[in-house]
Amino acid sequence: MGFVGHASGPDDIWAEPGGGGYPILSWQLSPLPGLPRFSRGNEEPNEPYLVSESEGLNNVGHNPRLMGCHFKAVADLDLTGIRLYSIGDCGSSYIGSFHSNGHVISHVTINGERHLGVLCALSGEVKEPGVVDVNMAGSSPRVGGLVGENYGGCCDPML
Predict the structure, then answer these.
(1) In the chain, what are the domain boundaries?
(2) Mind listing the pLDDT tens digit for each residue in 135-153?
(3) Would you state the pLDDT for residue 139?
(4) What phi and psi values does residue 134 have, to the nearest 5 degrees?
(5) What is d(CA 97, CA 83) in angstroms, rounded to the nearest whole number?
(6) Which alpha helices (H) appear in the chain, and where do they start and end?
(7) Distance from the first to the final alpha carbon of the chain
(8) What is the pLDDT of residue 50?
(9) What pLDDT is recorded for position 4?
């Protein structure tokens, strides 16, 4: 379980209330916590967030506020030694676009019981996909190096 401001899991799910007490959903905080930082850009298709570091890709994780955003890789992303938090899930699939821009995501290790892939659940679009050296462990019947479950999203034919 990830808490906002802790490295224990995906950000933006749970938060510890300022005055103590039981955890709350982060979108119940006022003001909302800041989003992860990316090289440049914004969430729009014509000016996507630029992902230049592996940790930047991992920051997207299960962050519900980023599931409709647009991203573009500007470097190869080596996930060696990084516990990947897959993007999207069956309750909140990724509806934005991810453009690999000719770059590859490599050395991916995914463990889990649900849809396994860099993109756990896709309803959006993937352009120029590239993943190499993917290792998965779990009991999911829905497994793919890049996309675990495609809910009608668009992937380039290179997939």
Answers:
(1) 1-34, 36-155
(2) 877 666 667 778 888 887 6
(3) 64
(4) -105, 130
(5) 22
(6) 54-60
(7) 31
(8) 92
(9) 54
Q: What's the Cα-to-Cα distance from 59 to each of 15, 38, 102, 156, rounded to whole Å?
A: 16, 9, 21, 24
**Residue 118, C-beta contacts closer than 8 angstroms, at least 6 positions apart:** 57, 84, 86, 87, 105, 108, 110, 131, 145, 146, 147
pTM of structure: 0.76
Contact indicator for 51, 39 with CB cutoff of 8 Å = yes
Determine the pLDDT at residue 60. Answer: 85
Residue 102 burial (C-beta neighbours within 10 Å; 0-12, 13-18, 19+): exposed
Query: Could you give the CA distance from residue 159 to residue 145 in angstroms, rounded to a whole number?
Result: 10
What six digits make up the tokens of 65?
């506020």
Q: What is the largest CA-CA distance in the chain?
A: 52
